[in-house]
Each structure stands twice: as structure tokens, then as C-alpha cells.
Specification:
3 helices
């Protein structure tokens, strides 16, 4: 394995390790772990049926979305259940609690050659990923 590959893997691992810290309130992390050409797709819509994240095209836009999302969900806490990194792809399973709401989900990542996140597909459900 070359140093470039090691650096890419370290950057991708760092992105996976910091992903939920970002979702737990530190939106600025998006600018550090996401590529300039960033996209995210959620399997769920907002309560009003909208999908504002579908318009995200940059790390800055994602950071702005996260700040908005945190304003809508100030008490949400995400917990990592497990993660895996396979070259340019990664997976992260997580749980989220917000008051009486307990849900789980999985995020699937594509990474650029420099290890930054380029694409994420996020699916959440009505049960914990711990079971």
C-alpha cells in the first residue's frame, strides 16, 4: 500500500468517525470531510413532504442544511453502532434519539481519491440498529 492510499484511507476513516459528531451539532465539520462536489440523498422526507437536501451541491450547502436541521431538532442525539471502510466506499449504522423518538439507520458513502465524502445515501427506520 502506498502512502497516498494510506492518506486516503485515513481521511475516509476520519470522515466516518466524525460524521455523527457533525450531525450532533458541529455543522462546520461538513466543510472538512465533504468534497466540493457533494451530494446526499435521504430515504425520508421532511414532515411537510419536502426534500430540501436534494438540492445540496457543495460542502458549504450541506453545512447550511445541517445548521437548519439542528435548529429543527435541537435535542437529537446520534450514536454510532458500527462502521466499515472498503476502499472508496463506507458504511455507518447509527441510532438517533430525540425525546421519545428512537430510530436507527444506515448511511452509505462514496469517497473521492483524496478520501473526502462525495456521495451519501441515508436510510432511517423506526427501530434501533442495535438489535
Amino acid at each position: 500500500m502506498t502512502n497516498d492510499t494510506n492518506d486516503t484511507s485515513r481521511t475516509a476513516r476520519d470522515a466516518l468517525d466524525r460524521w455523527l459528531t457533525m450531525w450532533n451539532g458541529d455543522a462546520a465539520i461538513a466543510r472538512e470531510v465533504c468534497a466540493d462536489d457533494f451530494r446526499i440523498r435521504f430515504a425520508v422526507t421532511e414532515p411537510d413532504g419536502s426534500t430540501p437536501a436534494d438540492r445540496i451541491r457543495t460542502a458549504d450547502e450541506f453545512a447550511a442544511y445541517l445548521e437548519w436541521w439542528h435548529g429543527q431538532h435541537p435535542d437529537a442525539v446520534f450514536t454510532a453502532i458500527g462502521s466499515a471502510l472498503d476502499g472508496p466506499h463506507g458504511r455507518l449504522t447509527w441510532d438517533m434519539e430525540e425525546g421519545a423518538v428512537h430510530v436507527g439507520g444506515v448511511d452509505v458513502f462514496d469517497f473521492a481519491e483524496d478520501g473526502l465524502v462525495t456521495r451519501v445515501w441515508s436510510a432511517g427506520g423506526q427501530r434501533s440498529m442495535r438489535a
